[in-house]
Write a structure and sequence with these properties.
50% helix, two-stranded antiparallel sheet
Length: 108
């Protein structure tokens, strides 16, 4: 029971007397930080779900057309900028085979 004191106990650091101070509640102790993290997570999830639902509706209403030339030009410009930022010769990047990203993964 709370307040009880044990008989002396021999431990690796000497002889100890233990006193039972209190029961420790089980489970999560809700702190302000945990509460804020949960709120941020749920708000983010709600926003993502709303966006995904709206996007699914937009896809039904809009005929999406890909301008491959513009996509390639933007990709080349981004690769050149990245190479410049990282000090890599952009000619080396042009030797890398491009990945075909026009096919959607299965299940989408």
């Amino acid at each position: 029971a709370v307040g009880d004191v044990s008989d002396p106990v021999i431990g690796s650091y000497g002889i100890h007397i233990l006193k039972y101070q209190r029961d420790v509640p089980s489970g999560l102790i809700m702190t302000d930080t945990i509460r804020e993290d949960i709120i941020a997570y749920l708000t983010s999830m709600k926003g993502n779900n709303a966006y995904n639902e709206a996007y699914a509706k937009w896809q039904l209403d809009v005929d999406i057309v890909y301008d491959e030339a513009a996509i390639q030009a933007a990709s080349d410009a981004a690769a050149a900028q990245q190479a410049e930022d990282e000090g890599i010769d952009s000619e080396d990047l042009l030797q890398i085979e491009p990945v075909d990203e026009t096919e959607a993964p299965a299940g989408n």
